[in-house]
């Protein structure tokens, strides 16, 4: 209530309407709804190389990377996706779409680490991944020098649907130690498979 109290009632109503538009946009047509709107409005910064991946390209890349989806889960309970320049989240959304298409719910079989230097782009990715039920983190920062200014975990990240096998406990500990030594703040850096 403290945050909402800073806004006028008309602004609160508009924010609710915008959220409804984004939710409906994601439901009606699978894809990167906010990224598509962003590019249609020509809000990208060509001087910073800001061109968002079109949905059909993201979908093609996800299908190529995942191949036969079932094969990805023969020896591990879930996969991770690292997206170092995520924009509005197209690639992560495409991976989630391909998993759903194959009968695998992303909130149980996917964990995403998406990062972008632009806070607006990272915010769009966070909104879309959150509304799509994808567990993971969206990092605002520079992937090239491991700068992590802010980390936003999606609601599905906190739901804890991913199952870490007991047999991999030592591997998890080693991985967490490695991330700690790198001074990364990602407390969920348990990567069993990098795609």
UniProtKB/TrEMBL annotation:
* Domain spans labelled DNA methylase adenine-specific: 46-150
Q: Provide the species name.
A: Enterobacter cloacae
Q: Is Methyltransferase among this UniProt entry's keywords?
A: yes
Locate the transmembrane regions by residue number: none
Q: Which UniProt keywords apply?
A: Methyltransferase, Transferase
Q: Which GO terms describe its biological process?
A: methylation
Answer whether the UniProt record assigns the keyword Methyltransferase to this protein. Answer: yes
**Source species taxonomy:** Bacteria, Pseudomonadati, Pseudomonadota, Gammaproteobacteria, Enterobacterales
Q: Which domain of life is it from?
A: Bacteria
Name of protein: Type I restriction-modification system methyltransferase subunit
Q: Which family does it belong to?
A: Belongs to the N(4)/N(6)-methyltransferase family.
GO MF, one annotated term: N-methyltransferase activity
Q: Which InterPro entries match?
A: DNA_methylase_A-5 (IPR003356), SAM-dependent_MTases_sf (IPR029063)
């Amino acid at each position: 209530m403290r945050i909402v109290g800073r806004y006028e009632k008309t602004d609160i109503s508009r924010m609710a309407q915008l959220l409804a538009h984004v939710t409906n946009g994601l439901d009606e047509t699978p894809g990167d709804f906010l990224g598509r709107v962003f590019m249609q409005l020509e809000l990208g910064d060509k001087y910073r190389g800001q061109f968002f991946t079109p949905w059909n390209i993201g979908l093609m890349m996800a299908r190529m990377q995942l191949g036969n989806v079932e094969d990805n889960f023969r020896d591990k309970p879930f996969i991770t996706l690292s997206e170092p320049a995520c924009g509005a989240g197209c690639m992560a959304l495409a991976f989630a779409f391909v998993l759903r298409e194959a009968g695998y719910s992303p909130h149980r079989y996917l964990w995403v680490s998406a990062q972008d230097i632009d806070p607006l782009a990272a915010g769009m990715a966070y909104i879309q991944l959150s509304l799509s039920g994808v567990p993971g983190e969206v990092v605002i920062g520079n992937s090239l020098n491991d700068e992590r200014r802010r980390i936003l975990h999606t609601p599905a990240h906190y739901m804890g649907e991913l199952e870490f096998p007991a047999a991999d406990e030592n591997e998890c500990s080693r991985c967490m130690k490695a991330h700690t030594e790198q001074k990364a703040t990602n407390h969920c850096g348990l990567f069993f498979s990098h795609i």
